[in-house]
Amino acid sequence: MIKKQFLTILGLALVFEGAQCQEHDVFVAHGSLAVLPCRDETSALSHPTAVFWSRIVENVLKTVWRREKSGLEFRQVRNPSRVNCPVPKSGKADYSLHIAETTIEDAGKYICEVDGKIRTLKVINLRVVRVSFSPAVVVEGLGMEAACQVSPGTQSVQINWKRDGKLTWRSSISNVSQKDGGDWTCQVTYNGGVVEATASLQVKGIVTPQNNSVVYAAVGSSVPLPCVFTDGLIPSTATWNRTSTTSYSPLPLPESFNKSAGPSASAAIQTVQDGDEGMYTCSGTMKGLNGETNTVLRRMELVVARVLSSSSSSGNGPMSLSCHLSNPSQITSYEWLRVNYGPNDTRTVTSVQKTKSVRIQEVSEKDAGEWVCRYYGEQGVLGSVTYELHVMGAVKSENSSSGNKTAMVVGLGVFFLVVFLVVFQMYRNYRRKKMILLYPAMETIVHQAATEREQRERSRPKVTEVCVGDL
């Protein structure tokens, strides 16, 4: 076939008497603009020139674009918008052919014929570079191979691979994961230049999260468990289960566990309780283009955080607050914070100390409020847990002080009342004596009457005793 093409080109060169024949390669990425150069360096623009662009297809010369000396242009009927030859109005005559959105079918041998003062024949090999994946739909967990196709093929090139802009040595993967997705670039180096073709690889499976992860949540809070599938999930296959982190024995899901419906199998625990820690697994079956299936899954370990408090029997004694996590293996440091609220809902956060536990020597009313334990990992803050400190001793002391003040006021009132009554009685006695001294005879009568009454009171029990004896 190569011999036939050579004979065809040779025949065209012989037809144009005195023609100059040039041939070179043009590499272009699939989907980009291809410019096939054809310049007439000898002819003047004032001289009438005819330009013929043709292509060899199955040993047949087919016209792509041509312009007569009269200026009449002829274009392809099949792709009139993608193929064009913009002729400049000044400078040297440039009759380069432009092909927009180049496809692999555009690759091949093109011939530019310029009929001016000197007939010129230029042969251009358009080589299109394209990246493809096998299979066309890549499913997570299965194999994949990336191919760099140069059409028409040639051995005088060097091929390198890039993934997301970084050089990589492999173009085939036996167990594909979500991290293998992204832009795959084929870099073709040839004599005179470099061309790159890029294709985006989307891996069918669970896109969120891309890897197994650890989720932190405080007791009493809500925590989301994301699990988002790509298109291709077989209906009614997405499931959730919970196992122990140590023995992987099955455990029941929490009571507040809620799973969403649809392609997104994400779930959430509305209220995290102490004991909800464990390994949560989301799984589903994906289907490829050729009917192949594979089960994909993500494991999310839930770590529950809470604050443990210990205090003495007395309400105002020393107290300790400790930050406790069900699995602290990835924790690198802790920090205790105090949160104070001011007027107009202002919020002030103050760092207390960077330890796992904090000790309050003497609990008072100023220590009441929010205490926050923040825990860190290698990537930064992982989460926090809040403890509300209620100081009951301060309230009790305040109530006792108020009661003492009330009792004191009542006691003083009773004391002054008694003193007043004593003074008043003394005053009455003084007045009575003063009035009696004014009347001596009355004083004698009153004294005698009092003496007789006293004698009667003394003799009455004796009379009673005598009577009882006689009976």
**What is the arithmetic mean of pLDDT?**
82
Shape: elongated
Largest sheet: 8 strands, mixed
For the terminal residues, how far apart are their CA atoms?
167 Å
Radius of gyration: 52 Å
Give the strand tally: 35
Characterization of the model:
- The protein has 471 residues and is α+β, with helices and mostly antiparallel strands.
- It has helices at 2-15, 392-437, 440-470, and strands at 20-29, 34-36, 39-40, 50-57, 60-67, 73-75, 83-84, 93-94, 97-99, 108-115, 119-134, 138-139, 144-151, 158-163, 166-168, 172-173, 182-190, 193-201, 203-204, 206-208, 213-218, 223-225, 228-229, 239-243, 250-251, 257-259, 267-269, 278-287, 293-311, 319-325, 333-341, 347-353, 357-360, 369-377, 380-389.
- The strands form 9 sheets. Strands 1, 4, 5, 6, 10, 11, 13 and 16 form an 8-stranded mixed β-sheet that branches. Strands 21, 24, 25, 28, 29, 30 and 33 form a 7-stranded mixed β-sheet that branches. The chain has a 4-stranded antiparallel β-sheet with strand order 15-14-17-18, with no helix packed on it.
Task: Summarize this entry quickly.
The chain has helices spanning 2-15, 392-437, 440-470; strands spanning 20-29, 34-36, 39-40, 50-57, 60-67, 73-75, 83-84, 93-94, 97-99, 108-115, 119-134, 138-139, 144-151, 158-163, 166-168, 172-173, 182-190, 193-201, 203-204, 206-208, 213-218, 223-225, 228-229, 239-243, 250-251, 257-259, 267-269, 278-287, 293-311, 319-325, 333-341, 347-353, 357-360, 369-377, 380-389.
